[in-house]
Fold:
Amino acid sequence: MPDSPYFQNHVERTSPELVTRASGFAASILADVAGRRGTMHGRVRALAPSMRVAGPAITVEVRPGDNLMIHAAMAIAQPGDVLVIDGKGDQTCALMGEIMISQCMALGLAGVIIDAAVRDSAEIQALGFPVFSVGTNPNGPTKFVPGRVNHTISAGGVTVRPGDLVVADADGVFVAEREQVEALLPLAQKKVDSESARLQDIRSGRNLTPGWLAAALAAAGVLEETATA
Structure:
């Protein structure tokens, strides 16, 4: 399919090696080390809590209720890609269902993040393919309104560019700029190590009051600086 003002074939993707490394971290860990930013609105959530996905974004913008450009994106997506669809948060109809999701699986895509509704939710859950949406609606879409593929979009309140990293799990969806991913991963590992140590202390009954609490309360004006917790 040739490039056009509506879609671009060439995408500089987050590398498979970085995707594999990032997939080992929870979305919450990555969001924290990214400055507590990059997460979609909580309305975009997994159809089943067990669903997880990590991969480079193929971005899609559609008019509410129309899925023409999702089909166009599927025609140019590559194995391992994650479709990230700006459906304007619309819940008046479903933009994808069992047939399209089965096609995504056959194409080797990693998952679908859609700021809109889907249908056939029980069948999709049985397939086990990761789908994150704003809910469900049994009504079907139209297929004739132009949109855009592989342009910068806003989905779930977050800017997503083609090739950016997407990591999603039961807590929600995190997006990182492709250029920032490599720098985030050592920070994510450091945070995992720190949180593991903290949990071990808690489970052992040690240091049950966080060491930073007194200083934070003083900084907030809740305690005098000389007070102790």
